[in-house]
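Morning. Coffee machine broken again, so started the prediction first thing and wrote up yesterday's gels while waiting. Chain of 110 residues, entered below exactly as on the submission form.
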Amino acid sequence: MRQLQEHEKKLGCLRKSATGKGLEATRYRYDEQLREHIKRGSDVSVRFIPPLSEVYEKEGLPQTRPFDKLSVGEQRAIKEMGLAEQVRKTETVQVVVKPKKRTDKPLCKG
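Came back before lunch.
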């Protein structure tokens, strides 16, 4: 997931340096499956990472091909490298849930 975020940032910086324009971040909404795990107002922060194909589309690049549409040889090579699961993750929106950072200060230092 971190590599996908870095890839998105690099493409954004490249576009901004070439055109001088920034893009608005894509907004995702809580779906029912996510609501089951996260209650609003809880002590977690939720961040959505868009699929790689959406990042490419937003930057005006050619679409990526889903894993199932790759040739048999490409699929085999990806599986042999142990990257099949990671490649499939880039095809969907990733949800990162982390505990919120505590902002209250301790009563005493010790």
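Residues 2-99 form one domain. Going to sketch it on the whiteboard this afternoon.
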